Amino acid sequence: MKKRIALVTGGFTGESVISLKSAAMVETQIDREKYNVYKILIYPGDWYHQTADGQKVPVDLNDFSIAIQGSKITFDGVFNILHGSPGEDGKLAGYFDMIGLPYTTCDALTSAITMNKGYTKAIVQDIPELFVARSVQLFKKSELDPTQLLKELRLPLFVKPNNGGSSIGMSKVKDPNELQEALDKAFAEDTQVLVEEFVSGREFSIGVYHSQGQTTVLPATEIVSSKEFFDFEAKYAPGITEEITPGRMSDEELQRVNRIISQVYQKLNCKGAVRIDYFLEYETGKFYFIEINTVPGQTETSLISQQVRAIGKTLKEFYSELIEEMFQK
């Protein structure tokens, strides 16, 4: 008998647009011989499934069920592709835990912690061979003194919302006069902001997932952007960024990166597929951790999709592995 899978998308943030694109891709690639798929859209105060004829069917939040033509439909599990809040920050995971419904992504605690860039770096920074850029975490209610920041950190600086994604609200500051504007921009997106020193290096993004008793590190993608940094436009507008999969690394770098990535995945207690961004510093080759995405994009051109194909696996096979893994105790 086919398992019933809720494909969860939408969201409460600007990333909902990307979430819908990811869901559209996943929906076409999930193995329909194994699974019946129902797309569930989640917006503030409005959780629903839309039928083929356009009917909007509300979700019963008591057990995350829907009723179609008088018949109640419950789900065996959730394929979570909701970027940002509430799908990536632990809120949905906590709800699904309470009602006993398995899901494809990290648990509530890991999701909540990894959504906060500063807290994540504090956890991973003692992993051997992993480095983090010097940074200061700011809170909206605290007194902000750009002058003091410039005494503690060296320009150029990255200023970014601590809990955001898709590089929304991020700025690169090269001149002291630009710092206040960058802080205002980041605080417009979040109540916490991370200000960190710029690392000059080659940028990579790498997927990793656990299935069938083993953790698989996918081939890294090297990011070569014509822009100052890999911002929202560089990520989603065509022609601005070159993405090379597999990325160009020596055998030593490849082995070291795979060691580090496996330890990050384990130390943060990750589940399902995540994507980790990092730099290899130009002068030293040191691995600098940037951030982790626990609900990475799954569009046709997304980095995870490229990396899965690079190991000779179809997305249909990959998604089946993620779905089956969530049922393992």
UniProtKB/TrEMBL annotation:
Keywords: ATP-binding, Cell shape, Cell wall biogenesis/degradation, Cytoplasm, Ligase, Magnesium, Manganese, Metal-binding, Nucleotide-binding, Peptidoglycan synthesis. Its cofactor is Mg(2+); Mn(2+). Mg(2+) 1 binds at residues 277, 291. GO terms for biological process: cell wall organization; peptidoglycan biosynthetic process; regulation of cell shape. Binds 2 magnesium or manganese ions per subunit. Residues 117-324 form the ATP-grasp domain. It is an enzyme of class 6 (ligase). It is found in: Cytoplasm. Pathway: Cell wall biogenesis; peptidoglycan biosynthesis. Its EC number is 6.3.2.4. The keyword Ligase applies. GO terms for molecular function: ATP binding; D-alanine-D-alanine ligase activity; metal ion binding. Belongs to the D-alanine--D-alanine ligase family. Cell wall formation. PANTHER family: D-ALANINE--D-ALANINE LIGASE, D-ALANINE--D-ALANINE LIGASE B. This is D-alanine--D-alanine ligase. The gene is ddl.
